[in-house]
Amino acid sequence: MTTPQAPDARPVPQVQTVRGPVAVNDLGSVLMHEHVFVVSEELRQSLPETWDEQERIADAVSRLKALVATGVSTLVDPTVIGLGRNVARVAVVNEQVDLNIVAATGIYTLADIPDFFRYHGPGTLLGGPEGMTDLFVRELTEGIADTGIRAAFLKCAIENELTPGVERVMRAVAQAHLRTGAPITVHTSAAARTGLVAQDVLRSEGVDLGAVVIGHSGDSTDLDYLHELIDNGSYVGMDRFGLDALLPEDQRVATVAALAREGFAERMVLSHDASCHIDWFPPGVREQIAPNWHHTHLHDQVLPALRAAGVTEAQLTTMLVDNPRRYFTPPVNS
Known about the structure:
Layout: E1 14-17, E2 20-23, E3 30-31, E4 35-38, H1 41-46, H2 53-69, E5 74-77, H3 87-94, E6 100-106, H4 131-141, E7 153-157, H5 164-180, E8 184-187, H6 194-204, E9 212-215, H7 223-231, E10 235-238, H8 249-261, E11 268-270, E12 275-278, H9 285-289, H10 297-308, H11 313-327
Parallel strand pairs: 3-5, 4-12, 5-6, 6-7, 7-8, 8-9, 9-10, 10-11
Antiparallel strand pairs: 1-2
Helix pairs in contact: 2-3, 4-5
C-alpha cells in the first residue's frame, strides 16, 4: 500500500533533455560542460567535402557510448547559436545512446551580436523589446525551432572584455532567467578574470548568482579569484580537463583538491569542454595538441588523480551528482 502524497508536497522537479523530461533526481553522474558537435555551419555548407553526416553521427555515437560505459548518465551541452547548434542532429545521435543530453539556449559571441538583432531592440535604430530574450524564453518553454526539444538552461560568453554586444546578450540571458527560472552558464576567461565581470552584469539584472556556473574557472590556479567567484554565490566550472595547453593537468588537479580541502566541493562542477567533433582545427590537429581532450578522460585519469590528491568519494559525488542536481532544481517560487 502506497502512502498518499501530501496535498502541499511539491512535484519532483524535471529537467528537459533531448529525449524529453527527466526527473532531476535521475540525472545521475553529470558532466556539466561538454559538446556533441561544434560546427561553423555556413562554412560546413560551403565546404561539403569537410563533412560526412553519417560518419560524424556514427563517430559521436561511438564516443558517447564510451562515455556511458564510465558511469556517466548525463551530458550538459552548452552549444548555442554561434557554435553551430543543431539539436535535430544531436537527437539522431541520442536515439542510439542511452544518455541524457541537456540542450541550451543563448548566443555565443565574444564581440558583436548577430546582425539579425543589430537594428532592433533596446538602444538600436528601430528600438523595441529585446528579441533575444523572447527567443530564449520560447526555446525554454516551447522548444527549439520545430524540433519540440526544449532547452533547460541559458548560455552566454565573455572573453577578455565586456563589449556592447556581449553585454546585450548577457542582459538578455539574465532577463530570460528571471522570466523562466532557468539556470545560466557563462563562458569566461579566467586569465582576464571576467567571471567577476559576468557576475556584476547578471547581478545588476537581479539574477541570483547561485543559479550561475562561471565556466572555465578551472583554467586558473588563482585561489583568490576563485574564492571571490564562490563568495559571490556561483558555482565554478572546473571544466577543461584535457586542455593542458591552457593549464597543465597537475595544476588543475591541485586547484580542485585545494578548494575541496577548504570545504568548497559544493561550489564546483567538473567537465572537459570537449566535443565529439569540432571543426575549429584541421583533421588530426586536436588529437595531436590535446590528446586527452575527450569525454572519458575525467573518469579514466582525472578522478584517480583527484583521489590521490586527497579528494574524497563524497566530495566527488558532490561535484558530479549533487551540484548538477541542485543547479537544475528550480527555486521554490518559480
